[in-house]
Amino acid sequence: MRMSTLRWTVLVIAFIVLTYGGLVGISLGDFLPTFACWYVGESRGGDCFLWHVQHHFSGHGGPGYLVRPNAPMLLYFFLLLLVLGKAWCGWICPLGFIMDVLDLARRRLNMGYLFFSQRLRARLAPIKWVLLFLSLVVPLSCFPFFMRSQIASDLSQPYCQWCPAKYVVPLCVGNVEEIAVNFRSGVGIFMTAVGLVVAGLFLIGALTKRRFWCSFCPMGLVIGLCRKISIVKLKKNCQACTRCGICYNVCPLDIEEIFTERTRTNVTYQDCILCMKCIENCPEEGVLSATFCGRTIYRATQKGFFSNPVASGRRARQEPAVGAADTISADEGEPVLSGSRPS
Known about the structure:
The protein is mostly helical. The protein contains 16 helices and three strands.
């Protein structure tokens, strides 16, 4: 089985369990480092950790309540990060699955896609930091000043009001109640109106940019910050790399550093979602590999490269020089709407 097929299989199973698992009694806890959206309702098979962090910070026991009685929740959360790291994003996240489905639809429609250059990625990076900051600070402002007011309720989970998962994932269980503006207060109107706009941008973005929301996701930021303690790593043999640029072409997050790195062995960068597309499509024996507890669990091979009908023609298909506007993606052989790729 190809790695991409395995990843799709895991994504589908994870989506079913996290979105519909509650219907058969599955409850994986309230510490999941992924968007198992609380707004899905009783059918969900687990809860997003970020929802509960905001819930407790907003005055439901105060910030101290998060650390003391909920120490097991924090412990389980970091244990899950230790074991899987950013693989939660690439292999399990329900919102990631929806983005991959929309990306698949885009390919079936033979549409081009947007490419985020390194400069643009650097300029967009602060957005996820701002979202994380607001997710933690705004709920704290509700304690204790507006603890019993409607304003406190509307501000208790600020990121969740803006997260596209709140508006998109419930649709998968037939829940359309969240597709509405909250008119209970001026704050509620503002928060839900912004959320609906973000959800619309998410759908448009996912149809035009691979893994669009991953560039802005605060949960992904938290997981990425813990990547150094995770036992899953992406490794590179820089001496054997021939600089073909395929790893850069196939990366859904447009991470150039894996391609350009010439000294470091560990190339598990913060934005990497460990989808392993770079390994699967690398033509050089053992240049890229994934390790678990220091042991190689998956590595690039020439046999794997040439067994891929799309990959086998990559070496023969020369791409335009850097700076061209009509470059072709080695991922799917389709036009890139903006940006450039390595020659």
